[in-house]
Amino acid sequence: MTARTLPDLLLGPAARSWGDERERTVMLEGYAYVFLLTQFLLWTTGAVVAWFVPGWVIVVLFVAFLLPAMEWQRYTRARDVDANTLAYAGGSLARVVTTGFYFGACAISMCVAATTHWLPNDGSASGAVVGGVIGAGTAMFLGWWRAKRVAARSHDDAPDEF
C-alpha cells in the first residue's frame, strides 16, 4: 500500500514497526515529547540567533517555527479532535500558560530583533512589540475561554450515567 498523504508517508500508521497498542502508545508519546522538546530548542535558538542575523532571516525562522504547530492543529482538526479544547480544558492550564509565556518571550525577542533592523529608533518598535504582546495575550485568553465553553457544552450534552 502506498502512502497517499504526507502524514501516512512519515508515520506509516499501518506498518508493523508500531507494534502492539502499548508500544504504539509509547511511540506516540515519544513523538509528542520530542516534538515539544524540538519546539523549545528551536524557539530558544531563534530568540538568541535573531540578534545576529538579518531581518529577513528572522521572519523566515519565525514562519518556519510556526508551521509545525499549525500543521499539528490542521492534522488534529481533520480527525475531529479539538486540540485547543484538550489543552486548555484538560486540566493543564498551568502548563499551557507557562509554555505560552516562554514561547511568547522567544517570539518577543525575535520581533524586537527584527524591528531594530527595520524600524527607526523612535519608539515605534516598542509600540509594535507591546501591541503584539497584547494581541498574543488576548488570543491565549480567547482560546482558553472558548475551550472551557466547548468542554462545558460537551459535558452538558453527555448522557447521564447510571
Biggest sheet architecture: none
Average of pLDDT: 78
How far is the first residue's CA from the last residue's CA?
A: 45 Å
DSSP strand count: 0
Indicate the proportion of strand residues.
Answer: under 5%
User: What is the SS-derived class?
Assistant: mainly alpha
Count of DSSP H/I helices: 6
Percent in helix: over 70%
Instruction: List low-confidence stretches.
Output: none
Radius of gyration: 20 Å
Query: Looking at the structure, what is the overall shape?
Result: globular
Order of helical and strand elements:
HHHHHH
Question: What can you tell me about this protein's structure?
Answer:
The structure is a single chain. By secondary structure, the chain is an all-alpha fold. It contains six helices and no strands. Helix 2 (21-49) runs antiparallel to helix 3. The chain is globular. The termini are far apart. The model has no long low-confidence stretch (mean pLDDT 78).
Name the features:
mainly alpha; 162 residues; 6 helices
Topology:
Layout: H1 6-11, H2 21-49, H3 55-78, H4 83-89, H5 93-118, H6 124-157
Helix pairs in contact: 2-3, 2-5, 3-5, 4-6, 5-6
Describe this structure in a few short sentences.
The protein is mostly helical. The protein has six helices and no strands.
